């Protein structure tokens, strides 16, 4: 088997793309091994640097030295710097708001450490860029020199004579090839395959008995046998990553070692490949286990994101509600920190999803508390106004009107929401002190009035008792006695307010009962008296029956209009309060009385019509 076959087998066993040389493949594999360790590196950096000043000092140290700077460390240093920086800004913002400042007017102070950090990072970036540019130039130079070597080896392998005569030059070219390191990745595989091809062609053109060729084969066999033994020994190394990296070094040395005798090439390669396969399988299993853990971590982090996204903020209305959910999110964040990396292609995306969920919540929380602050301040202004109004009325002696105003202020106080806690107790004490001062003064000033009202209540109860006795009595003078008691009732002063309605209701009911019992007979007597005295009244007034009828007709029409007016007013009145109920009840009684008068007047008009008809006959 030729060396080209060896190279292909190596590439397949290491799972490397066809475009990569074994050199490039080894570098790629080292990066793949290093990536899962980045979490540990993060932990080291985070544990080492506890303050922003320490981070700046480390960046300046790298900038002032000849270090290139590890990319992972630089990224983590940048994250840590702005983590500390943002924490300071947030703390300054909270202090500003707590001191009474308006959120939209907050301006963070300039961080004196930030220019130093940026300057040091720029120095490191420029150095890395310069080094990368120099490395790229060196790769181009290496490429050019290797192309020249390939061209010369190809010339030496053109004839057996050239091969035999220039063996020493060929060995020198091989040594120089080994000393030349990196070339552009896109040309590495092509160069290596051509090199292997021309080297084999050179050896195949040497004479079979050439001592130098046999010596070279023997020396190469010794080297490859040692590489096989070292590769087999790696199977006992418990550190899979270390064993794999060492295997890459063995493969690199194998590539740089020339061919062995053609008849044993395949056997030698098979042994080395077999030893390599053992390490590669362990390496693959190691990364499959890492991949499985990363997938498990991704599932856990996805579940945390879903829990975060299921939180509904529309239903959070109080401080306690928001604090409870804030605590829950902090618990999710703490759990997130205990979970390792997700797969590399998803790690950033899942972190962004979780971070955006947290940011969205805390932005809504900020908005809620901003709006709540405005609402509390608005409530504060309203309650201050009520306090000032109550304090301006506390010495008033307008007991009834001022009392009504203060009671209304107390109702409005209950309707207004909460105010900032630091003002709440003081405002409440001022408000209640003003109200209590007035009502205590009113109570002291109206003590005599209350005694008088109690005496009036006893008098009215006595009148009701007498009316009840009259309701059970029959006689001509019952109505006269009722009217006399009604006159007394109207002369009695105020009674306690809470008893007023019940007393009047009882009084009105017994009066109505008596008048209902005597009302019909009285109306008949009044109509008979009217008929008997009609002609006499007309003659004494110097009028006529027709004139009397016209006068009563006009009175009838006025009464009908008055009843209609009362009924319309009753329709507009609200009966939602005790005062409204009392007024409606009084107006209804007035209408009822007017209807009785209207009915009597109609009968009187009819009596006049009858009298006029008798006169005509």
Describe this structure in words.
With 617 residues, the protein is an all-alpha fold. It is built from 21 helices and no strands. It has helices spanning 3-13, 22-34, 38-48, 52-64, 71-98, 113-156, 160-165, 167-179, 185-205, 211-233, 240-256, 262-309, 319-338, 344-393, 399-415, 421-445, 447-471, 478-491, 497-540, 545-572, 578-616. Helix 3 crosses helix 5 (71-98) and helix 12 packs antiparallel against helix 13.
Helices, strands, pairings?
Blueprint: H1 3-13, H2 22-34, H3 38-48, H4 52-64, H5 71-98, H6 113-156, H7 160-165, H8 167-179, H9 185-205, H10 211-233, H11 240-256, H12 262-309, H13 319-338, H14 344-393, H15 399-415, H16 421-445, H17 447-471, H18 478-491, H19 497-540, H20 545-572, H21 578-616
Helix pairs in contact: 1-12, 2-11, 3-5, 4-5, 4-6, 6-8, 6-9, 10-11, 10-12, 11-12, 12-13, 12-14, 14-15, 14-16, 17-18, 17-19, 19-21, 20-21
Question: How would you summarize this macromolecular structure in one to three sentences?
Answer:
Helices cover 83% and strands 0% of the residues. The protein has 617 residues and is mostly helical.
């Amino acid at each position: 088997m030729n060396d080209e076959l060896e190279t292909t087998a190596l590439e397949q066993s290491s799972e490397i793309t066809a475009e990569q040389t074994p050199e490039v493949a080894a570098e790629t594999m080292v990066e793949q091994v290093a990536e899962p360790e980045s979490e540990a590196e993060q932990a080291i950096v985070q544990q080492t640097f506890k303050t922003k000043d320490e981070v700046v000092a480390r960046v300046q140290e790298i900038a002032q030295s000849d270090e290139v700077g590890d990319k992972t460390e630089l990224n983590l240093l940048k994250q840590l710097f702005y983590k500390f920086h943002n924490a300071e800004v947030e703390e300054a913002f909270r202090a500003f708001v707590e001191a009474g400042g308006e959120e939209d007017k907050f301006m963070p102070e300039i961080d004196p450490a930030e220019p130093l950090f940026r300057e040091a990072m720029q120095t490191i970036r420029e150095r890395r860029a310069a080094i990368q540019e120099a490395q790229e130039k060196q790769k181009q130079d290496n490429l050019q020199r290797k192309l020249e070597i390939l061209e010369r080896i190809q010339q030496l392998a053109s004839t057996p004579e050239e091969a035999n005569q220039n063996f020493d030059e060929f060995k020198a070219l091989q040594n120089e090839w080994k000393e030349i390191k990196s070339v552009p990745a896109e040309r590495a595989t092509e160069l290596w395959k051509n090199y292997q091809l021309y080297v084999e062609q050179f050896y195949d053109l040497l004479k079979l008995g050439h001592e130098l060729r046999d010596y070279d084969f023997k020396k190469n066999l010794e080297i490859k046998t040692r590489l096989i033994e070292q590769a087999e020994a790696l199977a006992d190394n418990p550190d899979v990553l270390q064993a794999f990296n060492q295997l890459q070094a063995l493969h690199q040395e194998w590539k740089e070692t020339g061919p062995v005798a053609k008849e044993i090439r395949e056997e030698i390669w098979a042994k080395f490949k077999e030893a390599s396969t053992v390490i590669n399988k362990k390496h693959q299993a190691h990364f499959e286990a890492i991949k499985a853990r990363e997938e498990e971590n991704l599932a856990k982090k996805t579940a945390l994101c879903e829990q975060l996204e299921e939180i509904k903020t529309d239903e959070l209305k109080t401080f306690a509600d928001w604090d409870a959910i804030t605590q829950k999110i902090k618990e999710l964040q703490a759990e997130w920190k205990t979970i390792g990396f997700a797969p590399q292609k998803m790690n950033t995306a899942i972190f962004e999803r979780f971070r955006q969920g947290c940011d969205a919540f805390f932005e809504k929380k900020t908005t809620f508390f901003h709006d709540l602050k405005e609402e509390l301040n608005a409530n504060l202004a309203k309650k201050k106004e009520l306090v000032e109004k109550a304090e301006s009325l506390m010495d008033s002696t307008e007991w009834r009107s001022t009392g009504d105003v203060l009671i209304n202020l107390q109702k409005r106080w209950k309707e207004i929401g909460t105010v900032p806690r630091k003002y709440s107790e003081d405002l409440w004490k001022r408000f209640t002190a003003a109200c209590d001062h007035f009502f205590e003064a009113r109570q002291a000033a109206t003590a005599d009035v209350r005694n008088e009202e109690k005496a009036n209540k006893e008098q009215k109860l006595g009148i009701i008792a007498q009316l009840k006795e009259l309701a059970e009595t029959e006689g001509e003078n019952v109505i006269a006695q009722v009217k006399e008691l009604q006159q007394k009732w109207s002369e009695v002063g105020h009674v306690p307010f809470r008893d007023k309605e019940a007393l009047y209701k009882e009084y009105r009911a017994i009066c109505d009962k008596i008048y209902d019992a005597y009302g019909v007979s009285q109306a008949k007597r009044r109509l008979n008296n009217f008929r008997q005295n009609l002609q006499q009244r007309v003659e004494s007034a110097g009028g006529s029956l027709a004139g009397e009828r016209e006068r009563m007709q006009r009175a009838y029409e006025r009464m009908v209009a008055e009843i209609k007016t009362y009924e319309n007013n009753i329709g507009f009145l609200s009966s939602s309060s005790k005062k409204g109920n009392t007024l409606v009840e009084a107006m209804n009684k007035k209408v009822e009385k007017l209807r009785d008068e209207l009915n009597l007047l109609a009968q009187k008009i009819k009596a006049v019509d009858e009298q006029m008809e008798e006169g005509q006959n």
